């Protein structure tokens, strides 16, 4: 298995397995309460989000690819990968995408700016995607989505940035593994890319975890930055942080926690 940057042709696949991966997540049960009734609308929601994030400056959308040897072992566990013939390894000429991670680099340093450049074509694509999102929102075309419940979540402060005291950092927006391939170390491998990049740049890594992902993040060395309660959504939703070795640790201020 290896990790590579996503391309636009990947997003149909990533959106498709996002539906079973997130349909029972506590957050999306709240913001998209009708996802089970309208699964294609929920899929289109992810398709739009993935295209948008990929086009924005500062974002890195990476995908986990199952290598031919991995697929050979999956279909013929007793046969060594080297003994599998070439036809079995080709995977019909297409990559087998089994997970993804969406990262964003925050900061004003030269290292941060190197991730934040945007070509004219990317700006134009991003603008068109924003117009599409406004069109879908205005006409209520996403039947899986509840605008009123999402507004109430915003009123609880869910969408505020808990990490304002850390200007230079990598932030993990989403981590998803195809449910058919979970518990194989794919999430850890996707996460490792950001941790390794943060270590090179000597900055922290931040995220807001779900119940399902918390065990993995803590196993990989993340610590609690702050914890909030969102009544009706989740009690005790921690914001987590990872500090690479040798990086100066910043502690959460009382004003961050109480705001």
Provide keyphrases for this structure.
about 260 residues; alpha+beta; seven-stranded mixed sheet; 11 helices; 7 strands; about 40% helix
Task: Chart the SSEs and their pairings.
Blueprint: E1 2-5, H1 11-22, H2 26-31, H3 39-55, E2 59-66, H4 68-75, H5 86-89, E3 96-106, H6 110-113, H7 120-138, H8 147-155, E4 169-177, H9 186-201, E5 204-208, H10 211-219, E6 223-230, E7 234-242, H11 254-258
Parallel strand pairs: 4-5
Antiparallel strand pairs: 1-2, 2-3, 3-4, 5-7, 6-7
Rough outline: globular
* Through-space gap between termini: 42 Å
- Write the element-wise H/E pattern from the N-terminal end onward: EHHHEHHEHHHEHEHEEH
Give a quick account of the main beta sheet: strands, pairing sense, barrel closure.
Answer: 7 strands, mixed
Number of strands: 7
Mean pLDDT: 88
Q: Which regions are unreliable across 5 or more consecutive residues at pLDDT < 50? A: 78-92
> Rounded to an integer, what's the Rg over CA atoms?
19 Å
Side by side, the strands of the main sheet go 1-2-3-4-5-7-6
Helical fraction: 40-55%
Which percent band covers the strand fraction? 15-25%
Overall SS class = alpha+beta
Number of helices: 11
